[in-house]
Write a structure and sequence with these properties.
By secondary structure, the chain is α+β, with helices and mostly antiparallel strands. The chain contains eleven helices and 20 strands.
Length: 398
């Protein structure tokens, strides 16, 4: 009998479609997918080689609804989600059924930026000036420059740099006009190059998969435009980030941690308690040759990770996201392309269909496509990626 995996999801994502579902099939798992968007998932997997055995509509943001649904079904061997927004719920669901799980408190600390800042300060790991913002309450007098962001947000959504009280008021007014009850935070701006550390753990001694150095859009927004893989981040950075994660209780499964180095100190930006997204996980799997998605699922099945993960053999990689610079209809764009030239592999995938009309959002929803490039050294990888992108054409008409 195959093991049963409950996969809990919101919208379809590349990490699930191209990563976790194929991995589950290779492991021989029977997948039951619970989601609040069943039609979107059925559409996404119409031609998929390894679709879920079942797609079930459920209010997955409410852990009690998922517990009630699973309680009527055959016993699951693992409950897993790669959604930023469902880690706490999934941890509670797995714990209810006595299955391997993240500590729900650690998942909540990682997701809720106000909890994260308070917890790290209380444990004397790091202190970042941070204030919670709510509609109708008085706004604080700084810190400025500061960053306004959703308290439980993800990626660059509704994140903006503000220089003074006037800009703070404008930023809050804009968000609350569209999302009236959304809790926000104002944090001191942590200057420095944005980096990440990618880790994988089974509850003991997290394994480090390297990190990324990130290129962002121009202020006041923080849209990731490109990421270069760093196979050996500075040892002092690794030690500091792992100390932050240990204080938060993070160490089970995959984690994508963003940080900057300011005045020789590692300062966390955010902790995403799941595998890195936007196809960076697919890049990592191709680069390292490791079955990363299988490892994550095996951990949730209660299996230990290998003591040592092999390195990538010296290859280098980067990922680029061509991005819309205006709102309108996409009238021309390249199709999916795979090229292998002189030891360099390029994989381009469109993220927006011809004829698709969208406003400019200054978030990763402005991405037009994604280019993954792997090669023998960074100079070669950078050149091939730049030449490829320069040869393509994306045309947006108002």
């Amino acid at each position: 009998m195959p093991s049963n995996l409950c996969l809990v999801a919101l919208n379809p994502t590349d990490s699930v479609t191209d990563g976790f579902l194929p991995a589950a099939a290779r492991l021989g798992l029977r997948v039951t997918l619970l989601t609040d968007q069943p039609d979107a998932h059925r559409h996404a997997y119409r031609a998929h080689p390894a679709p879920p055995a079942e797609i079930v509509g459920c209010d997955v943001r409410d852990f009690r609804a998922v517990v009630d649904e699973l309680d009527r079904r055959a016993a699951m061997d693992a409950v897993f989600s790669n959604s930023d927004h469902l880690q706490t719920q999934t941890a509670l669901i797995a714990a209810y059924f006595g299955l391997p799980a993240k500590d729900w408190r650690a998942a909540l600390r990682a997701k809720n930026k106000a909890h994260m800042r308070r917890h790290l300060a209380q444990h004397r790991v790091d202190t970042v000036i941070s204030h919670e913002l709510r509609p109708g309450a008085a706004l604080p007098d700084g810190p400025f420059p500061g960053v306004v962001k959703p308290r439980e947000g993800v990626a660059s959504e509704d994140v903006v740099l503000v220089a003074d009280r006037h800009e703070l008021e404008l930023a809050c007014r804009d968000v609350w006009r569209r999302k009236p009850e959304l809790p926000l935070v104002l944090e001191e701006f942590l200057d420095g190059e944005l980096r990440s550390l990618e880790t994988l753990g089974d509850g003991h001694n997290p394994r480090v998969l390297g990190g990324f150095r990130t290129t962002l859009s121009a202020p006041p927004y923080f849209v990731e435009r490109a990421m270069v893989h760093d196979p050996l981040p500075p040892a002092q950075h690794v030690r500091a980030v792992l100390a932050h994660l240990a204080a938060l209780g993070v160490g089970f499964g995959a984690c994508h941690t963003e940080y900057v180095v300011s005045d020789d100190r590692v300062r966390l930006i955010e902790v995403n308690y799941r595998i890195i997204g936007d196809q960076c996980d697919l890049l990592l799997a191709d680069l390292t040759g490791l079955p990363l998605h299988e490892y994550v699922l095996r951990v949730h099945l209660g299996e230990p990770l290998p003591a040592v993960l092999p390195n990538n053999g010296g290859r280098r990689a980067r990922i680029d996201w061509p991005c819309a610079d205006r709102g309108g209809s996409l009238v021309a764009a390249p199709p999916a392309i795979d090229e292998h030239v002189d030891g360099v592999s390029l994989a381009y995938r469109p993220l927006r269909a011809i004829g698709d009309e969208r406003p400019l959002t200054n978030t990763n929803r402005d991405y037009l496509g994604v280019l993954r490039t792997i090669g023998p050294d960074q100079t070669t990888v950078d050149k091939f990626a730049a030449d490829f992108l320069a040869a393509q054409r994306w045309d947006i008409r108002p």
